[in-house]
Amino acid sequence: MTQVARVFTGWTVDRPQRGGGFKFDENRHEPGTKKILGKKIKEHGELEAGSCCNMLATRPATAAFLSRKAGHPLCRR
Description:
Structural class: alpha+beta
Helix content: 40-55%
Number of strands: 4
Radius of gyration: 16 Å
Distance between the termini: 33 Å
Order of helices and strands: HEEEEHH
Strand content: 15-25%
Number of helices: 3
Largest sheet: 2 strands, antiparallel
């Protein structure tokens, strides 16, 4: 989880009081290669977040986890 957090360093919301969008600040991003689930994400600044999200979204385990979380409250009824 720490490595995922490192990927997202530098991301913020521009003017949140006005409904601003996401903004990447290179000066606040932690440089270096990150290792998530045994795979390396090379240092690419702003592009690292997309690589991380893509890696997690395409894993079968992610779909199974989200299905269990979404379906669990419904099974109690």
